[in-house]
Amino acid sequence: MAEQVFRVMLRMEIRPGMEEDFEKVWQEVGDSVTDHPANLGQWLSRSAEESGIYYIVSDWVNEPLFRAFETSDRHLVHRQKLHPFRSGGSMTTMHVVAALAGAARTEQGTR
């Protein structure tokens, strides 16, 4: 069986009034994650329901390569740049077991 994509989802609580700066810095330092050879992509989403809550989702080739990145100096530097904006958060990890493309994606190509 082929290895499953390893997905990481971070829930980040951003200090009030720092949301815009957080989004800017996240964009500026994101390549420290996406340039890693095992990274398949990364997304930043703002909660539509809770003020100051963001979700960062990143996909990885597999869990061992993500764990190697997670403990690397590269990741430490990335975290240090985002830490001043955080007041709390959590991490959830998972293995993607299936994916279905929606009608809009299959008709219009990748968005």
UniProtKB/TrEMBL annotation:
Q: Which InterPro entries match?
A: ABM_dom, Dimeric_a/b-barrel
Q: What is the lineage of its organism?
A: Bacteria, Bacillati, Actinomycetota, Actinomycetes, Kitasatosporales
Q: Which domain of life is it from?
A: Bacteria
A molecular function (GO) term:
monooxygenase activity
Protein name per UniProt: Antibiotic biosynthesis monooxygenase family protein
Keyword S-adenosyl-L-methionine annotated: no
Which species does the entry assign this protein to? Answer: Streptomyces yaanensis
Task: Tell me which SUPFAM superfamilies the record gives.
Answer: Dimeric alpha+beta barrel (SSF54909)
Sorted alphabetically, which keywords does the UniProt record give? Monooxygenase, Oxidoreductase
| Ranges where the ABM domain occurs | 6-94
- Has keyword Oxidoreductase? yes
